[in-house]
Amino acid sequence: MKKMLLGFILLFAQVLFAQDPNSRVKFEPQRAKPGQEIIITYNPEGSPLAGKKDIKAVVYTYENYLWQVNDLALKEEKGIWKANFKLSNTCGMLSIKFTSGALEDTNNDQSYTQMLVDDSGRFAPGGYAGWGLMRASNYGYGVKNYLEKQNISDSAVYFWLNQEISFHPKEASEVLSVPFCQALFNMQRESSFPRINRVVSFLKKNPSEPNMMRLLSIYQRPLNNKIASDSLENVILSTYPSGDLARLKAYQQLNFERDFGKKVELSKSFLKQFPYREADYTFNEKRMINYTNVYLFLAIQAMMQKDYARLEALSAELPAISIPTIYYKCIDIAHKRKDVDDASLLAPAKAMFIRMESFKNQRPVEYWYLSPEEWTAEYEKLYSQNLALTQIGILRNTGNFEEALALANRAQKFFQFKSALLNNEQALLLDYFKKYDLLQDVLVKSMHENQSSPEMLELLKKDYIRARGSENGFDTYVSGLKNPELATKELDELKSIMINKVMPDWTMKDGNGKVVKFKDLRGKTILMDFWATWCVPCKASFPGMKLAVEKYKNDPNVVFFFVDTEERSPNYKQEIMQYIKDNNYPFTVLFDNKLPNEKANDEVFKRICKAFTISGIPQKLIIDKNGKLRFITVGFKGSATGLADEISAMIELTKKAE
């Protein structure tokens, strides 16, 4: 009876995976075996990729109960795309994703899948398990970025894993024991314990380190047997003092340590005993062992001690996934805040860049779910967005102009003039090298995207005067360079977020000690920019705000207040007025009030945050002539000209409000 049932299930599964004549994907042969070469045919008609000329494909294969990811070399002929693909001898199934730019076709999240067969006609080892685990993202054994929205039932996961173990016990019984027990328990709860205990007995017969770790997982969940778990932990730790469990315990110890000095020492010991390059990444990921944190503690200590040589040495061994975080924490922030001079940052920053470059043609294990082509694209994104922009500035500021320009040209291929910071750096470098034709191209394309800086406007004006002999008509010329579609889209978005709320009353003093009262400003359109000296994006937005202030300098009915808040320094008022003077900002500064027994001057800002359920700075508020709040804008997107235009549009809408 049992054999008949298994035969029926097998027949059902094979019918289920028989080739659908209406499917957009065809596999030849239809019942492929491991080791064969297959032909994959894709007809995108009726899919999100219909009519696209740049279709690519990624193939996910389940081999030896592990996922492998590769690109398919598609060729198009009369709208049909084909590829040959050689299956490995250990492949049990394959699934495909088709893409065109940001568009994907995964068969409506159902996948395009073929399960392979062995010589007996059954599904090959891995076929059943791969099909079950791929669609159960909550179990953590699927493929990232493929069918993550799919979560089949626990009974379905159990069904496919049970089939795998039944038909391929030699290959599957150990490696799938943990997800099998999890699915069984999730489906049957406590009634599953007798069968789970049989799995435990089976694993005990071969007490290897992997099996002991599997036993430990099962003891912890689903059996919740603390006595057995604790006892087994002691055995594992004594038998494998440098194994996975020892690594987990050491990481937990340093992670829970609160004293920073002790945490640093534990991090040094951890890396010495458990080098990253020798660690099992799959185990690290499932048990949340984060090497980035370990390296970060050491990097921060080096920064605190101004030991940049030590940071440089540490940078040369960083995992790929850690580099963006540590570069940001140690290089980017210090550069933007000017806490450390760029000459000191140059060597460790270069070391991180060189380390990052070492992964360009070698996909790191953390990104196993990306195909080689996907990794290349992801690498350029990580490289450009997380490192290049700051690195260009450091190189330029330290006189490494040629290296800075080469990096800027490379990063521009990724950003396509949509980063004001990069555009500014590239423009300044081209101006330095007197490459005026290339400079003009950068200035015009940057302005078209409205991603420019005040320095770039000056360069554009110089070029305009050089060509025309005077600056007459320059403002009209600049307006004509901007993409009208972007302006229209932004205006529509601003109209949709316009509000009409009562603004809390306030009284503050300006930089000269003069009292300014909100109630005395009726009839004027008011912009209040809440900021602080420690806020990097606040100060980064000031060049754009300067453009906006200068635009309305002759309009007596528009006033700007730059409200300094949340300061703790005893001499903050003098420091702020000196900062405004040094940077030639034509700003009227107001100082938020400091209440008795409070550490910071934030009385007005606190009330405004409470009234409008907001938090954090920079916060820009635009208030109409009747004292009603019309706009709240948070943060800074990076473009001075873009910010100035956004502020101008909000002011004009506010002036017209009734």
From TrEMBL:
Residues 497-656 form the Thioredoxin domain. The keyword Lyase does not apply. CDD domains: TlpA_like_family (cd02966). Residues 1-18 form the signal peptide. It comes from the Bacteria. InterPro entries: AhpC/TSA, Thioredoxin-like_sf, Thioredoxin_CS, Thioredoxin_domain, Thioredoxin_ResA/DsbE_sf. Keywords: Redox-active center, Signal. This is TlpA disulfide reductase family protein.
